[in-house]
Specification:
Helix 1 packs antiparallel against helix 2. The protein is elongated. It is built from 3 helices and 15 strands. The protein starts with a strand and ends with a strand. It is an alpha+beta fold and 224 residues long.
Length: 224
């Protein structure tokens, strides 16, 4: 069954890699050593699988600029489109929705776009449609995170892909987040929506641009 996993403390990990990679890397290195001892010609296969695991489980340290009037990207990937929606769960107003599509080989860790407090948290178990399906945002398994920042509220929606079918999140209701802090992991591709009140931001990018979570500037805050 797909489920949200809440992690209060991050497990020990190899720098630059998610802790979940530890087991797979250990197995891969063990098989490589075994192959080198018994049949060296077979060693390239476990070496390749170990390298693939390291790539898929990347979790690089990143430094988010200290800019309180800036919204940063939530996910690595390509900004697919920006549209207007009415957000009815938390914001209850007309909003801009910035949609980022992440490929299976992009870093799978999502990060907070601003400093703020988690005021809304809802996990919805659903289907696993292709992420380009127009109904995927409302039908797929997803996690809603509503943040209250110093300038106003916003919503983040992490949407699972048909491959991994799991969203892992370390955050809890009422938790204080820093801009660039880790808020969840969705492996092997994902769609991540950043939803903000329409008149509160000025966009700094457009559809088709590549972004990095916690680093790329998405918008600046417009004083109300």
């Amino acid at each position: 069954m797909p489920e949200q996993t809440t992690i209060k403390e991050r497990s020990p990990h190899i720098p630059g890699l998610d802790a979940e990679a530890n087991t797979f890397l250990g197995i891969g290195l063990g098989l490589t050593g075994l192959a080198l001892g018994l049949r060296p010609k077979l060693a390239p296969l476990p070496i390749a699988l170990t390298a693939l695991t390291a790539m898929l489980y990347r979790d690089p340290e990143r430094t988010t600029p200290n800019e309180t009037d800036t919204l940063f990207a939530v996910s690595d990937g390509i900004v697919q489109h920006i549209d207007e929606v009415y957000e009815h769960r938390y914001l209850h107003t007309d909003c801009l929705r910035i949609v980022t599509m992440r490929s299976p080989i992009d870093v799978s860790v999502n990060r907070s776009p601003v400093d703020g407090e988690v005021r809304y948290l809802e996990y919805v178990s659903g289907e696993f449609r292709p992420l380009n399906d127009p109904q995927a945002p409302e039908r797929n398994t997803r996690l809603y995170i509503g943040l209250d920042s110093t300038w106003g509220p916003l919503m983040i929606v992490q949407i699972a892909s048909p491959i991994a079918r799991r969203i892992i999140s370390p955050i809890e209701l009422g938790e204080r987040l820093e801009a660039g802090g880790r808020i969840g992991t969705v492996r092997f591709g994902a769609r991540v929506d950043l939803i903000v009140q329409r008149d509160s931001i000025e966009l700094l990018l457009g559809a088709g641009e590549r972004v990095l979570a916690g680093v790329s500037r998405v918008a600046c805050i417009v004083p109300l």
